[in-house]
């Protein structure tokens, strides 16, 4: 045991490994169930509880998540003995989870995930402690590859995914950090790309190299002449990529930032029929 956590080792001839891999749910392989302290019902894991208690069939007033750190009782899947939270069954002696965290009251037989507990996050993470660091400002663990390159965002993962709305801080799915610093599920980013969406859904900043797209828009703008009444009309735009505000010639296709050449802009003032014409005024 190290810092209150035990990592088991497999031995097919040991009674401790009896039933290894045979029990659990879609979320975890483990040899115990939990008694939820909030509703006193038995579930395979907290995710099973939360999915059941937050389904559309449940009265909105009765929906709730299990308070994971308040878990006090578990049931051995092999002998059915209910007992206080501990790694080994007090009746049959089986190891109820090769990875066990006494702080999170968490069991998992699949220790290939390289679970570790982060005291600052207050929960267990996967991927190996040596591969991650905790960013105090973002309030979460990131890959060490991002240690000197990520943009800090206050409590970056303490919110719902902007695409699927699942709470990110303790999600079991892979998360990616966009260049702007906002976090999102990796599969949600891929889903956005399948629909040709390449801007952060939180701040609208482009999260990949869009230079080829901007070049194509240059060509489309050049090949789409505006009617005489709209030529030389000026509008104010805000660039979502660099944050620059500028006055540019209005075009129906897109309006280009004069600072960074991005077309990821939004019109803030003026319009095709009400904006001023700088050239006409001059």
Class computed from helices, strands and strand pairing: alpha+beta
Described by the principal axes of the CA atoms, the overall outline is elongated
Q: Largest sheet, if any? A: 4 strands, antiparallel
Percentage of residues in helical conformation: 10-25%
Distance linking N and C termini: 79 Å
Strand line-up in the sheet with most strands: 3-2-4-5
Count of helical stretches: 4
Number of strand segments:
16
pLDDT < 50 stretches: 1-8, 273-282
Structural notes for this entry:
The protein has 282 residues and is α+β, with helices and mostly antiparallel strands. β4 (73-76) and β5 (82-84) form a beta hairpin. A four-stranded antiparallel beta sheet has the order 3-2-4-5. It has a three-stranded antiparallel beta sheet with strand order 1-6-7, with no helix packed on it. A three-stranded antiparallel beta sheet has the order 15-14-16, with no helix packed on it. It has four helices and 16 strands. Residues 1-8 and 273-282 have low confidence and may be disordered.
């Amino acid at each position: 045991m190290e810092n209150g956590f035990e990592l088991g080792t497999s031995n097919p001839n040991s009674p401790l490994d009896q039933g290894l891999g045979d029990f659990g749910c879609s979320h975890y392989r483990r040899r115990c169930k939990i008694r939820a302290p909030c509703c006193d019902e038995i579930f395979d894991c907290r995710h099973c509880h939360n999915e059941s208690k937050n389904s559309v069939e449940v009265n909105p007033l009765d929906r709730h998540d299990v308070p994971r750190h308040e878990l006090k009782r578990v049931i051995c899947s092999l002998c059915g003995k209910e007992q206080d939270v501990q790694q080994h069954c007090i009746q049959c002696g089986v190891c109820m989870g090769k990875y066990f965290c006494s702080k999170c009251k968490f069991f998992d037989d699949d220790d290939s995930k390289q679970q570790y507990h982060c005291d600052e996050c207050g929960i267990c993470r996967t991927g190996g402690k040596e591969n991650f660091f905790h960013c105090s400002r973002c309030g979460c663990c990131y890959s060490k590859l991002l240690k000197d390159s990520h943009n800090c965002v206050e409590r970056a993962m303490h919110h719902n995914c902007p695409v699927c709305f699942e709470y990110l801080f303790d999600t079991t799915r892979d998360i990616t950090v966009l260049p702007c610093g906002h976090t999102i599920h990796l599969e949600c980013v891929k889903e956005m790309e399948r629909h040709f969406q390449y801007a952060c859904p939180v701040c609208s900043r482009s999260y990949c190299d869009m230079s080829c797209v901007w070049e194509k828009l240059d060509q489309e703008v050049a090949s789409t002449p505006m009617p005489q009444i709209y030529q030389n009309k000026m509008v104010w735009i805000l660039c979502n990529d660099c944050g620059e505000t500028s006055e540019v010639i209005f075009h129906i296709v897109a309006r280009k930032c004069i600072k960074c050449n991005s077309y990821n802009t939004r019109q803030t003032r003026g319009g095709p029929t009400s904006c001023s014409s700088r050239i006409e005024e001059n």
